UniProtKB/TrEMBL annotation:
Pfam families: Glyco_hydro_17, X8
Descriptive protein name: glucan endo-1,3-beta-D-glucosidase
Enzyme class: hydrolase
Keywords for this protein: Disulfide bond, Glycosidase, Hydrolase, Signal
GO molecular function: glucan endo-1,3-beta-D-glucosidase activity
Origin species: Gossypium lobatum
Domain X8: 268-350
EC number(s) recorded for this UniProt protein: 3.2.1.39
Family, similarity comment: Belongs to the glycosyl hydrolase 17 family.
Record's catalysed reaction(s): Hydrolysis of (1->3)-beta-D-glucosidic linkages in (1->3)-beta-D-glucans
InterPro entries found in the cross-reference section: GH, Glyco_hydro_17, Glyco_hydro_17_plant, X8
Keyword Hydrolase: yes
Gene3D superfamilies with a match to the protein in the record: 1.20.58.1040, Glycosidases
One GO biological process term: carbohydrate metabolic process
């Protein structure tokens, strides 16, 4: 229990602690209420500690909620799930009395991923042929619709003006159908322009979210894939600190900058030996993919169509690079071999690792990205 229910400290780019997140999405439907009884007592204890340390005026406690905590056929009908009414009443009252915002994670990608009938264009900010009509209000993107559903839910509790922080929002670049570089760039760029326009939403015109965190800075190659293989590919930068796509941050000519002086390992790769019978390769692939990240090989991934032998090579190379190109790590009982010809195919990129001097950019490292992301008002998107 202690391992699962924890606090996350959110730090702005200037090193100042702004929020302490008590748990993360503790009200998920899939948790079946197992964490609900811990939330308010944990917050009360932490608040007492902040008061004793004279930090309550500077650090605010929040509870990041998933968008499934509330529901509604249209935004104006938004309400918290019936079984959450009591706990949400307590939580929102606590947040309000201590000057804390309501933190919510909104992922239009997940709506698209989980529902084959979800209109694809409604997930973005480019307009839609499937708008949601809610009385006098028209919604042309899922973000606004979701956001206003929350506002309606808060309004029903008497807190319609409570500040809202978007704790997580973004689009993955691999690992599923619809998760690709083009879609991620279109979504994130549309999101930035939308928030910086200060248009707000139909229920909060001219009042954008107080802060927005773009998830995430880097991919997390060791993250659980239980929700989907895309979970390891939310980063706007690749493992070596290179921007995956151009992103206009609304700061004139200032855009994403690539990491400099990254020290790569030699340009060599581990592939399946073309002269060997690969009929007994399954256990070796399993070993490689249990350690390294092979999620791009799955349906919808960028390496899904490279064929059986290509799959073996990709798995072998992923493991080989993670092992810092150790000669023995490409053996696989003689089924692997080192090549100096880049085996990348189309959009399927076979990685080359980085040296120990660039340890912070090692591929598949268990990145602790969490909340140390892009804080709109503190760094890139100050309004």
């Amino acid at each position: 229990m202690v391992k699962k229910f924890k606090s996350i400290i959110c730090i702005g780019m200037y090193g100042k602690v702004g929020f302490i997140a008590v748990g993360n999405e503790p009200f998920l439907t899939s948790y079946n209420g197992q964490f609900q009884s811990y939330v308010i007592p944990a917050m009360a204890n932490l608040q007492q500690s902040l008061v004793r340390a004279n930090l309550a005026g500077y650090i605010k406690l929040v509870v990041p909620c998933n968008a499934d905590a509330y529901e509604g056929n249209v935004p104006s009908q938004g309400a918290f799930r019936p079984e959450l009414t009591q706990i949400m009443t307590q939580l929102v009252s606590f947040l309000n009395s201590n000057g804390s915002p309501f933190v919510v994670n909104i992922y239009p990608f997940l709506s698209l991923y989980g529902n084959s009938e979800f209109p694809q264009d409604y997930a973005f900010f480019e307009g839609t042929t499937h708008p949601v009509i809610d009385g006098a209000n028209t919604y042309t993107n899922a973000f606004d619709g979701n956001y206003d559903t929350l506002i309606a839910a808060l309004s029903k509790m008497g807190y319609g003006q409570m500040p809202i922080v978007i704790g997580e929002v973004g689009w993955p670049t691999d690992g599923a159908v619809g998760a690709n570089l083009t879609a991620a760039e279109v979504f994130n760029q549309g999101l930035i322009k939308h928030v910086l326009s200060n248009k707000g939403t139909p229920l909060r015109p001219a009042v954008p979210p107080m802060d927005v965190y773009l998830f995430s800075l880097l991919d997390e190659g060791a993250k659980s894939t239980l929700p989907g293989n895309f979970e390891r590919h939310w980063g706007i930068f690749s493992f070596d600190g290179q921007a995956k796509y151009a992103l206009d941050l609304g700061l004139g000519n200032k855009k994403l900058k690539n990491a400099k002086n990254v020290q790569y390992l030699p340009a060599r790769w581990c592939i399946a030996n073309p002269n060997r019978d690969l009929s007994e390769v399954a256990n070796h692939m399993k070993l490689a993919c249990n350690v390294a990240d092979c999620t791009t090989l799955n349906y919808g991934g960028s390496c899904n169509a490279i064929g059986a032998k290509g799959n073996v090579s990709y798995a072998f190379n992923s493991y080989y690079q993670l092992q810092m190109q150790n000669e023995k790590s490409c053996n696989f009982d003689g089924l692997g071999m080192v090549t100096f010809l880049d085996p990348s195919v189309g959009d399927c990129r076979f990685l080359v690792g980085v040296t120990d001097t660039s340890a912070s950019f090692r591929p598949y490292q268990r990145w602790v990205v969490g909340c140390i992301l892009m804080l709109w008002q503190v760094w890139a998107f100050r309004v």
